[in-house]
Amino acid sequence: MGIEWYDMIARRNGGYKGRAIYTVEGKSAEDIFEERLINMLPSFKSVLDAGCGHGEFTLRMSKYTNRLLDLIIQQS
Question: What radius of gyration do the chain's Cα atoms show?
């Protein structure tokens, strides 16, 4: 997923909520998000990853917090 994917999601939801445009050269949006999340996670005792998919991201993030619960609800 690149910036185009995030732009598509923003358009579907009425646009970006802030008017600022952020550009970071040389890093993907996913890498930037992950770095910021890793910096935030240690300050929380428990974290919920709702809609975690197959869990790869949840497993990577689990080492940065005391308790990480993943939740996915599938309709049958």
Answer: 15
Please give the Cα distance from 56 to 5 (Å, whole number): 20
Amino acid at 56: E
Q: Is residue 37 part of a domain?
A: yes
User: Are 38 and 63 contacting, i.e. CB atoms less than 8 angstroms apart?
Assistant: no
Question: Domain limits at 24?
Answer: 3-71
First to last CA, the chain: 28
Question: Is 13 a domain residue?
Answer: yes
Per-residue pLDDT tens over the stretch 21-73: 666 677 777 888 889 999 999 998 899 888 877 788 888 899 999 998 888 87
